[in-house]
Automatic annotation (TrEMBL):
Record's keyword annotation contains Glycosyltransferase: yes
GO MF term set: D-inositol-3-phosphate glycosyltransferase activity
Keyword Transferase appears in the UniProt entry: yes
Organism from which the protein derives: Palleronia marisminoris
Domain (Glycosyltransferase subfamily 4-like N-terminal): residue spans on this chain: 160-281
Identification of the protein by name: D-inositol 3-phosphate glycosyltransferase
Domain Glycosyl transferase family: start-end pairs: 307-467
EC number: 2.4.1.250
Enzyme class label: transferase
Gene Ontology biological process: lipopolysaccharide biosynthetic process
Gene: mshA_3
InterPro entries linked: Glyco_trans_1 (IPR001296), Glyco_trans_4-like_N (IPR028098)
Pfam families reported for this sequence: Glyco_trans_4_4, Glycos_transf_1
């Protein structure tokens, strides 16, 4: 579907956009080339409803809001056929509970104030940490009891038993949603206004895919599916009682998808066997940095404090770095801590989003091993700054465990961040990552299940940095194959073929897309 003057590209993500660097950098590249881009994303507390980042318009909405979650949204998704029964079992009881809670909201607010409904949600305390989280948890539990007592004493439309049942159903079925959450995403998105001329809908990940089908139908535009993972074989977010659900949802949506994008050759090959449209375009997770330097490309930054500065160790102290979320055993960072036992004097820093329970698990393990004094957890930085921040480390590490086909074929951000920081990297012995470091000569593999093997690999890189230094050929390959400008070119080529060139009045900005 090619138009003479394409309108706005709608990009859908279930994350808040500043926490989703892949979605944002793709949108930035399209906008810099001249396309008008609008991102619809989650709306956490503290963010404005409408925003703009580097010319990309942002509309935030409560992706999984209780008030916007309805049974009717599921009933309208007639394209869900093979997945329909599984989706109905998960989604409909949850949506019914949401409808009851939404109906009772006016009663609660009339008697307990405008924040009454929010105080019934677990997010009332879960979004906080430390003492404030404990205080809010106590308030949350007390408020639930107060509401039940109140409903027994009044002639509310909904009895205390029904409110209690709805709350119980809401909590129980919310935990069982998995990919059925994608219906709630559409149910809430459908409340937003879409007026004007549109060019395409770009759905990121399976949680936005059914919504992408519905919105593309509504607007009469093509649909692009951007699979950041191989969804049917992820290590997490797969229901034990319904592992086939992601594949069924994708199969139901494939006939409505006009183009596919994914992150690695291996994942593209898997999708090519199932998706009957054009071969998926591979847009790798390269950082937005100038290939000639590790300094960030975005403006307004006067200074970036490197990881070595933040840890506070001199240049002669070996420093290993991990970027991204710690998570749990599936990412293998517990094995890295065990490897530190064999590497006296080596410091370890993690740069990325902090999650209290995961960080506590990690630090508790470090303490048990006696290495906690050599471990530092650092906050996240702008994705474009990561290569600069980690550039003073001796070695980067990616110990992803071989627990799923998705992990086996992964090409995570941390690979590219290390490569463009000119920091050698030790990676799991998994095919895609192994090919990357061996082809470029910028690191080595290790047995990711063995602390001894991890320690040996780290020691080899720390002791022999020249062996893994970038050659002119490495730099050429990074620029021509793996750099973000090259990935942006592929993304832009897809859209030029799908919807035509951007509007004439926006073309003057196109040169900045490749900078």
């Amino acid at each position: 579907m090619v138009s003479d003057e394409p309108g706005t590209i709608i990009s859908l993500t279930y994350h808040e956009i500043t926490a989703d660097p892949r979605v944002l950098k793709e949108a930035r590249a399209l906008r810099a080339f001249g396309y008008d881009v609008k991102i619809c994303c989650d709306w956490p507390e503290g963010f404005p409803k409408h925003d703009e980042i580097d010319g990309v318009r942002i509309t935030r909405f409560p992706c999984y809001g209780v008030e916007g979650t309805t049974v009717a949204a599921f009933d309208a998704m007639d394209f869900l056929t093979t997945s329909r029964a599984s989706m109905a079992v998960r989604y409909k009881p949850y949506a019914s509970a949401c409808e009851v809670l939404t109906a009772v909201k006016p009663y609660l607010e009339a008697h307990f104030g405008p924040d009454a409904f929010d105080r019934l949600k677990s997010s009332y305390f879960r979004r906080h940490r430390g003492f404030e989280r404990v205080r809010r948890l106590m308030s949350y539990l007390a408020f639930h009891l107060k509401v039940r007592r109140f409903s027994r004493k009044t002639y509310m439309r909904y009895s205390s038993q029904r409110i209690g049942a709805a709350l119980a159903d809401f909590k129980r079925h919310r935990r069982q949603q998995f990919q059925a959450q994608s219906v709630a995403f559409w149910s809430n998105l459908s409340r937003e206004e879409f007026s004007g001329r549109y060019a395409a809908v770009h759905a990121h990940d399976i949680y936005c895919l059914p919504a992408g089908v519905m919105l593309a139908r509504q607007l009469g535009v093509p649909l692009v599916y951007d699979a950041h993972e191989y969804e049917p074989a992820r290590a997490t977010k797969i229901a034990v009682d319904g592992p086939e659900l992601p594949e069924l949802i994708e199969n139901d949506c494939f006939p409505s998808i006009d183009r596919m994008i994914t992150v690695s050759d291996g994942i593209a090959e898997l999708y090519s066997k199932r998706y009957r449209g054009p071969t998926p375009t591979i847009v790798m997770n390269a950082p937005e940095v100038d290939i000639d330097r590790t300094a960030p490309t975005h403006s307004g930054l006067s200074h970036v404090q490197t990881v070595r500065d933040q840890v506070g160790v001199p240049d002669d102290v070996p420093l290993a770095v991990f970027t991204g979320g710690i998570q749990r055993e599936k990412r293998g960072m517990d094995k890295v801590l065990e490897a530190l036992v064999h590497l006296p004097g080596v410091q370890l820093a993690s740069v990325g989003p902090r999650q209290a329970s995961n960080d506590s698990w990690f630090l508790d393990h470090a303490k048990r091993l006696g290495v906690e004094a050599r471990v530092t957890l650092l906050p996240p930085v702008d994705a474009r700054d990561v290569p600069t921040v980690i550039s003073t480390a001796n070695v980067a590490i990616c110990p992803l465990q071989d627990v799923s086909l998705n992990h086996r074929l992964a090409m995570p951000n941390k690979l590219f961040e290390a490569a463009f920081a000119r920091v050698p990297i030790c990676v799991s012995n998994l095919p895609e990552m192994r090919r990357f470091v061996e082809t470029l000569g910028i690191g080595r593999t290790m047995d990711q299940t063995s602390p001894e093997s991890i320690a040996e690999a780290l020691r080899d890189v720390i002791d022999h940095p020249d062996k893994f230094a970038h050659s002119p050929e490495t730099e050429r390959k990074l620029a021509e194959i793996y750099s973000w400008p090259r990935q942006a070119e592929k993304l832009i080529a897809l859209y030029q073929e799908l919807v035509g060139p951007p509007q004439a009045e926006n073309l003057e900005t196109s040169s900045s897309a490749m900078r």
